[in-house]
Structures are given as structure tokens and as C-alpha cells.
What we know:
- Helix content is 25%, strand content 34%.
- The chain is of the alpha+beta class.
- Helix 1 (51-65) packs across helix 2 (82-97).
- It is elongated.
- The two termini are 16 Å apart.
Amino acid sequence: xxxxxxxxxxxxxxxxxxxxxxxxxxxxxxxxxxxxxxxxxxxxxxxxxxxxxxxxxxxxxxxxxxxxxxxxxxxxxxxxxxxxxxxxxxxxxxxxxxxxxxxxxxxxxxxxxxxxxxxxxxxx
Length: 124
């Protein structure tokens, strides 16, 4: 099994509904995002997937979130947790990436709110 991972960042504000604590107030994060692709077969160039292709897609998705209030996006239903951000980014990457010729698949998206706090979404 092969795996490739690319990384991007964005900065955004949010607050959490139905949460008792300081995160229920508007605050921001410098998010770090990893996108992982896995597969068993390399393409003719000896790669699972071109890093540049995956990186460009991830950066584009992150750019659309950069310097926004995530609560303003209908997708999050006023509750943009790290878990919901991860599935949102996963879905957007998957739509843009389409079918990979060698059968590799987007495996997971990690969203770090801090260096020590991460949420992951992966399809099983």
C-alpha cells in the first residue's frame, strides 16, 4: 500500500453552538490541513498521484475558507467543528479530484486547530 500526503493552511473564525466553554465565543484558528491518498498501484511515472495535483486542489479548497467566519457557510449549520470542517474539505477534494486512473483514492483529511488538536475524516 502506498500513501501520499499534502498539506495546506488557512485562517478562519468560528464559534460552536451547543458547547459550554470558551469556544462558544467567536474566535479564530490558523488551521493546518493534510490530505491523504492511498492505493496499491503506481502510475506509469512511478507515482501514486502527482503531489502538485493534490496540493493544488487542497490549496484551492482552503483558499475558499481563508479569512472567513465559518459560521456564515450554510454547510456547517452554524456549528463548524473541526470534524465538520474535515468532512467538508474531504468532500470538496473528492469532487475536484475525480477518478484516479490507477485506482488510488482519497483516504483521509486531517484538520488541525492547533499543533496538538486534530480531527480526521475518512471514508471506510
